[in-house]
Specification:
By secondary structure, the protein is mainly α. Helices cover about 80% and strands about 0% of the residues. α1 packs antiparallel against α2 (about 15-30) and α3 (about 35-50) packs antiparallel against α4.
């Protein structure tokens, strides 16, 4: 994830996406599709998609990341971060009611 972030800082979104996808594939194959580290990698990939304007993919990946984290750590305060990330993408897509619902749920956790 640090390499993804470094490419993002440099606005190298193609490289960031490539690294994020490779990282995700490695984590899924070694840890399983529902591991908490997979959720973190998906969060990074969602951020890349968000910055490149690929909002539909960003939403799909962010939603899956939140679902994985929620299954693994339903009462953990960091779950709110995953919810807020998904809510930001929903807002960018104009899905304001869904975004507001997730934001309320996130505030209840923190």
């Amino acid at each position: 994830n640090l390499l993804v972030e470094a490419h993002g800082e440099l606005q190298e979104w193609d490289a960031a996406e490539s690294v994020a996808l490779r990282c995700l594939a490695l984590l899924e194959s070694s840890l399983g599709r529902d591991h908490i580290e997979v959720a973190a990698a998906m969060g990074s990939l969602a951020t890349v998609y968000q910055h490149t304007g690929n909002l539909d993919s960003a939403l799909t990946v962010a939603r899956r990341a939140r679902e994985i984290f929620e299954r693994n750590k339903p009462d953990h305060p960091e779950l709110a971060d995953y919810m807020l990330h998904q809510a930001a993408i929903l807002r960018n897509l104009g899905q304001l009611d869904q975004a507001a619902t997730l934001e309320r749920q996130a505030r209840a956790i923190k």
